[in-house]
Amino acid sequence: MGSGARITAVLGPTNTGKTHYAIERMLAHRTGVIGLPLRLLAREVYDRIVAARGPSVAALVTGEERIVGARAQYWVCTVEAMPTDIGADFLAVDEIQLCADPERGHVFTDRLLNARGLLETLFLGSDTMRGAIAALVPGVQFLKRERFSTLSHTGSKKLSRMPPRSAVVGFSVENVYAIAELIRRQKGGAAVVMGALSPRTRNAQVAMYQAGEVDYLVATDAIGMGLNLDIGHVAFSATAKFDGWRMRPLFPHELAQIAGRAGRHMAPGTFGVTGEAAALAPEVIDAIETHRFAPVRRLNWRAADLDFGSADRLIGSLEASPANEWLQRGREADDLRALKALAELAAVRDLLGHPRDLRLLWDVCRIPD
């Protein structure tokens, strides 16, 4: 990394223009890579780069789509799919507070520690990451952003009383479809946005809502990750979710990430609950309105230095413990579980004659879904 290479952490609440700033910085360089937490968000950023510079210089790489222009200079990716070896002048990672996420945190932490642009690196996210980034990234500079508009709590509202341009958030596919059905019966149309839909369907639903063809959006917490939607009010139909292991209440910072989608740019936003959801506690409401949350104390980490000598050695290297007090081993990820299961099969073991075979097996294990 050259001495002229800048590393900046751009931290602040939702709706502060952080992603917009990153796109502007990327386009000021000859080449760039940006890693985003969601396929839907990667798609939105890719569309903006195509609009600014044309499709031939843009690339979109996610777990489910790969569109690479003939002269690709700007790579827009999910964080898992970022190419880290193309030597781009600029590199950015969005929603860097996901380093603390139990499922995907180790990937974000790896990017925080190891991924750099040759000239400029940006990490975007919540102010809760300031201490961790300061401790782990030498030479980092901080840029604080303030929210453009106010966010205020308006209590509980029935679905039949939802104001136009509202998003109702559910945490299961069944729940989302049931709410959408209710809104369609009482109010007319609703768009549905969730990770389980195909890219084409998702994009079409977002477009339908954005164009004002329907006034209501029903979504999973996927919309918390920076989709630039024109939303005035966010209503939680539940405040707990199944996180892959158990039902758990959402943390205040997770509620804030979703509530913060209300009020685009200068327009004020409101949030509250609906349906069966319990009222939010006063201290949670206060934290969301003032954007003050407990700092992140531990980042989930997994070794990046892997041993391809044998399947057992590879698994051992993936299970190494971190040497830094800021880092902890997260829960066992799907890719490691898949590797363990496949390495048990005699038919697979017989194919592992060479380290490159093991590398291929590991690459296969890392394919999402």
End-to-end CA span: 34 Å
Assign a percent range to the helix content. 25-40%
The class by helix and strand makeup works out as alpha/beta
3D shape = globular
What order do the helices and strands come in, and which of them pair?
Elements: E1 6-11, H1 18-27, E2 32-36, H2 39-53, E3 58-61, E4 66-68, E5 74-78, E6 90-93, H3 105-114, E7 120-125, H4 130-136, E8 141-144, E9 151-156, E10 166-169, H5 173-187, E11 191-193, H6 199-210, E12 216-219, E13 233-236, E14 240-242, E15 247-249, H7 252-259, E16 269-273, H8 282-290, E17 299-301, H9 311-318, E18 327-329, H10 334-343, H11 346-349, H12 355-365
Parallel strand pairs: 1-7, 1-8, 2-5, 2-6, 3-5, 6-7, 9-16, 10-12, 10-13, 11-12, 13-16, 17-18
Antiparallel strand pairs: 3-4, 14-15
Helix pairs in contact: 7-8, 9-10
Verbal overview:
With 369 residues, this protein is of the alpha/beta class. The protein has 3 domains: 6-144, Rossmann fold, CATH 3.40.50.300; 151-290, Rossmann fold; 302-365, no CATH class. It has helices spanning 18-27, 39-53, 105-114, 130-136, 173-187, 199-210, 252-259, 282-290, 311-318, 334-343, 346-349, 355-365; strands at residues 6-11, 32-36, 58-61, 66-68, 74-78, 90-93, 120-125, 141-144, 151-156, 166-169, 191-193, 216-219, 233-236, 240-242, 247-249, 269-273, 299-301, 327-329. The chain has an 8-stranded mixed sheet with strand order 4-3-5-2-6-7-1-8, with helices on both faces. Helix 9 (311-318) runs antiparallel to helix 10. It is globular, with a radius of gyration of 21 Å. The two termini are 34 Å apart.
